[in-house]
Design brief:
three-stranded mixed beta sheet; 174 residues; Rossmann fold; alpha/beta; 5 helices
């Protein structure tokens, strides 16, 4: 799956990501969210720039993840100048303004299934974060290219089900 995603041309990533983000931007949960958690896209991941820009232009608080030890923590994105390269080469916010309650959280993944589960890079960062913070997140949405959505993924006991998955054509709720 990762190989299939990594062979996408830059224009395909941009266009498919735009369509996926538009699906999210048009959902009622985005419209009502006061705080949006996103991620800084890495390599061929679905981009989040439109979600971040629109949220900020509407006066919503935007939070991005930062790797701290074996866990993720979300910090407010106050300006693009506050991003630094993190442990895995992914841009992260500086640890100034922690965000504990997120109305809409969008997450990346290598693959997703039609039951709402995601396969990440295998380190469990998002699963640990979601398990620990599920009561402070109103809706968690995986962003996926349509080819990343499979019928079923092999599950492990620590895997956390998402609330929804957005693809180029729709958002599926679970």
């Amino acid at each position: 799956m990762l190989e299939q995603r990594n062979v996408l041309e830059a224009f395909e990533i941009t266009e498919r990501s735009r369509r996926i983000q538009e699906v999210v931007l048009n959902c009622k949960e985005f419209k009502s969210a006061r705080t949006v958690g996103a991620y800084y896209a890495f390599r061929s991941e679905v981009r989040t720039d439109l979600i971040i820009e629109r949220a900020r232009s509407l006066g919503k608080k935007v939070a991005l993840p930062r790797v701290e030890g074996e866990n993720l923590a979300f910090y407010e994105l106050s300006s693009d100048n506050c991003l630094v390269k993190g442990r895995f080469g992914i841009m992260e916010p500086l640890p100034y303004s922690p965000v504990n309650n997120i109305d809409l959280l969008v997450v990346p993944g290598v693959a997703f299934d039609k039951q709402g589960y995601r396969l990440g890079y295998g380190k469990g960062y998002y699963d640990r974060y979601l398990e620990k913070n599920k009561k402070t997140i109103s809706l968690c949405v995986g962003l996926a290219y349509s080819f990343q959505l499979l019928d079923c993924l092999p599950l492990r006991e620590h895997d956390i089900r998402l609330d929804a998955i957005a693809t180029e054509n729709e958002i599926q709720y679970f």
